[in-house]
Design brief:
Elements (H helix, E strand, L loop, with lengths): L4 H15 L3 H12 L8 H12 L3 H9 L2 H7 L2 H13 L5 H14 L6 H8 L7 H12 L6 E4 L4 E8 L6 E5 L5 E3 L1 H7 E4 L4 H7 L1 H10 L1 H10 L4 E3 H8 L9 H12 L5 E3 L6 E4 L6 H10 L4 H17 L6 H18 L6 H23 L23 H10 L3 H14 L4 H9 L4 H14 L1 H13 L5 H13 L12 H20 L8 H8 L1 H13 L2 H13 L5 H14 L17 E3 L1 H30 L8 H25 L1 E3 L14 E6 L5 E7 L10 E3 L3 H4 L9 E5 L5 E11 L2
Parallel strand pairs: 9-10, 12-13
Antiparallel strand pairs: 1-2, 1-5, 2-3, 3-4, 6-8, 7-8, 11-12, 11-15, 14-15
Length: about 750
């Protein structure tokens, strides 16, 4: 009948006859069509029978369906025949003929299935058990084919059926901790949960390596997969429980979730709940970009959280990549307004006030865009902000806090100008006072406006900051970066010179390092100082010694050599310039061999440094490249802090690799040097005695050989530098970076390589 529309129409007429309760006509038409069911679609027959059964004519419905059995059997349509027989049995069909028909159909449908005969017997289908009960039991038995994943909640965990014993129907299951376990089929039905193939528990069991690759490369996709296997919605705690320890190492969870969350929060197919333990839900249809932004804003109450969301929306408008109607822009503006209103219910202070001011600015722009009636237009913002978030001066700390609360650099500059405009009489004094405690983000706009309108006042303020007995570390670093690295502010009248800033910076970091050694929560500025000095092969340090007088060079060189807060690379950069410009500073009765600008270390130390260089080039550079790619995916690169940080890390890494290359080119194995034993030199082992009579043995080797636990120190370290060139019997008085003085007498010198 599938070959002609007339036959299909006749089968469909069965439904109309059943609906009109024309049972006599229905039986007649049914008999006429039943002989042709071998090719006809089954659905009209089933639908008509269901209607008849719903009219309290179930025996008739069962009889009609059984008339289809010969044709379906002849056509080999076993799955459809099973459906017909099941329905007929449910509507009262009884007798051995129906039971035999069912058994025969099942044998053909599951031909070759291991354990089928055992299942037919144990289910009662070949016995006298009621048909529907027996059939339901058989279907439960058949739900455990080879390859089926299962879960045993009482302790065996996840497993997979690997074999069905043909004669008994027993399952052989490989569990996580127990392989080859045999289970009677009745026990499997009672105690084992069947897992879909895409259930996260099944995937953790069968495809752990694939999931680990996803965790490393596409963490958001792994989260989606996990939530999908939980019906499309799952609390984060449940997702974590599924993945932790199996796919994600315990110590990596925070980093893994942070990476996944950055992607999921922008996924229009995902709803990410609020709070630290959100529920993750997969949407059936994706939200529009504007709807997604509105949903994100609706979950926020802090302006600092809302600002980047609104900026992302505005960047999308500017890009023109999606058509966004003015009404949708208005909805985003309303959501931003509600967030701002919620924030202003509490007093706004410091960074919250700055963030609220910035959100107010963005709200004005959104409202102007919506009013313009065209998403691509860029009318000027109407200016001003609501009084609750107006710029204000206040205390220096309040002003700094507001500037720090503003994420965008250009917006910080506008806030500084607006603050000055609101207080034309007192802004200069307020800005100078704030400058003394302003980190980099706030220091820039404060200094820029002062440099433009009050350069002398700024120069004097910078000099006070540099010469203060205990300057604010973050403000000093911002000043040092502006003068030493960026080259700005150095020419202001009354401003400190580059040389003075560098000298005071090294003094400050040494002081903080001594305080840090004593505890008390002192900030660690070493990484920031290194980032400031490191670019262009420590050009800041080299420039100082190129321009310094002999006396100034001697003073700073001694400080650098004695500093514990600086790396060996800084000392080597200084040593190279001093060796060329002021060789007398390095001589003590003649130039020592280790002061020729080369790097001395053992062969093992050189090999370690070569391996470290290989790791930087082959692994760390790849990691940084991936980080740049991931950060670039987050949006506008001009306001992307993660992208900027990744680029800075790449630049530092490139500079470090170049420096290591040059150092290795200058490396000399100590094993190839005629190491003297009449005085302390690199490659010697020296026995010293302190004032208390304690004896210590020190092996003085290269910067890549250091192992303090084994008594191996670098010849560039402050302690070793104070011993170099001294002979047995001499007393060395060595001032260490922490201010302590050690007096050591040379007892014995031996070759160490």
């Amino acid at each position: 009948m599938s070959g002609g529309n007339a036959s299909d129409t006749q089968a469909a007429d069965l439904v109309q006859l059943a609906e009109h309760r024309a049972l006599a006509e229905l039986e007649e038409a049914w008999l006429a069509l039943a002989e042709q069911v071998t090719e006809a679609p089954l659905e009209p027959f089933i639908r008509a029978a269901e209607i008849v059964a719903s009219q309290q004519e179930q025996p008739l419905a069962a009889t009609l369906l059984l008339l289809l059995a010969p044709g379906l059997r002849q056509a080999g349509r076993w799955a459809e025949l099973l459906r017909v027989l099941r329905l007929a049995a449910g509507w009262g069909a009884r007798g051995e003929e129906v039971r035999a028909e069912l058994v025969g159909c099942l044998r053909r449908l599951h031909a070759g299935r291991p354990g089928l005969e055992a299942y037919l017997e144990r289910s009662g289908l070949t016995g006298t058990r009621p048909l529907l009960e027996a059939l339901a039991e058989l279907e439960r038995f058949l739900g455990f084919p080879v390859g089926q994943h299962v879960f045993h909640a009482a302790g065996w965990g996840v497993g997979r059926v690997v074999e069905v014993v043909p004669h008994t129907g027993e399952l052989v299951v490989d569990f996580e901790e127990r392989r080859g376990h045999r289970i009677p089929i009745e026990g499997a039905v009672q105690f084992l949960e069947r897992l879909p193939a895409d259930d996260i528990r099944a995937l953790c069991f069968s495809e752990p390596e694939r999931l680990r690759r996803l965790a490393a490369e596409e963490p958001a996709e792994l989260i989606r997969l996990c939530v999908r296997s939980r019906g499309g919605s799952a609390p984060l705690a449940q997702v974590k429980n599924e993945l932790l320890g199996r796919v994600v190492a315990p110590g990596e969870w925070s980093r893994f979730w942070a990476r996944a969350r950055r992607v999921l929060i922008h996924d229009p197919h995902v709803h990410l709940g609020t709070g630290s333990r959100p529920t993750i839900t997969l949407r059936e249809s994706a939200l529009s970009f504007a709807e997604q932004i509105v949903e994100e804003l609706a979950a926020l109450r802090e302006p600092g959280q809302a600002v980047p969301v609104v900026r992302r929306f505005l960047r999308e408008l500017d890009s023109g990549s999606a058509a966004i109607a003015p009404a949708a822009i208005g909805q985003v503006a309303e959501a931003a307004r509600a967030c701002l209103a919620a924030a202003t219910r509490r007093p706004l202070r410091g960074e919250r006030a700055g963030a609220a001011w910035e959100l107010g600015e963005l709200l004005r722009e959104l409202q102007a865009r919506a009013a313009a009636g065209e998403a691509g237009s860029r009318p000027a913002a109407s200016g001003g902000v609501p009084p609750a978030v107006a710029a204000r001066g206040g205390s220096p700390g309040e002003l700094v806090g507001m500037l720090l609360g503003v994420r965008d650099a250009r917006a910080r500059e506008r806030l500084a100008r607006e603050t000055a405009a609101r207080d034309p009489e007192g802004w200069q004094e307020a800005f100078v006072a704030a400058l003394a405690e302003a980190p980099r983000e706030a220091f820039g706009p404060l200094a820029a406006l002062l440099a433009e309108r009050a350069p002398e006042a700024l120069g004097a303020a910078l000099m006070r900051l540099v010469t203060a007995a205990d300057p604010h570390p973050e403000a000093f670093l911002a000043l040092a970066r502006a003068i030493l690295q960026e080259g700005t502010l150095a020419e202001l009248p009354g401003a400190p010179s580059r040389a003075l800033v560098l000298e005071r910076l090294l003094a400050l970091v040494d002081k903080l390092e001594r305080r840090r050694a004593g505890g008390g929560g002192v900030p660690n500025l070493r990484p920031q100082v290194r980032a400031l000095l490191e670019p262009e092969q420590y050009a800041v340090v080299r420039r100082y010694f190129e321009e310094a007088s002999p006396q100034a060079a001697q003073h700073l060189y001694a400080r650098i050599m004695a500093s514990h807060a600086l790396d060996d690379e800084v000392r080597e950069a200084a040593r190279a310039v001093v060796a060329r410009r002021f060789p007398d500073l390095l001589r003590s009765g003649g130039e020592w061999f280790w002061e020729d600008g080369r790097v001395y270390a053992t062969r093992a130390g050189i090999a370690r440094q070569q391996q470290a260089l290989h790791v930087l080039k082959s692994e760390r550079m790849s990691e940084v490249a991936r980080a740049i790619g991931q950060a670039a995916a987050f949006g506008d690169l001009s306001e992307n802090a993660e992208f900027t940080a990744a680029l800075e890390e790449r630049d530092r890494l490139v500079a470090r690799i170049e420096r290591m290359h040059k150092e290795l080119e200058q490396a000399v194995p100590l094993e190839e040097v005629e190491v003297p034993v009449e005085y302390v030199a690199p490659g010697t082992e020296v026995t010293v005695r302190d004032e208390a009579g304690a004896v210590q043995r020190l092996r003085i080797l290269g910067p890549w050989d250091v192992d303090e636990s084994a008594g191996i120190i670098s010849y560039t370290a402050p302690l070793a530098a104070g011993l170099l060139g001294r002979r047995p019997g001499e007393l060395a008085e060595i001032r260490l970076p922490d201010g302590a003085v050690r007096r050591l007498r040379i007892e014995r010198i031996e070759r160490a390589v």
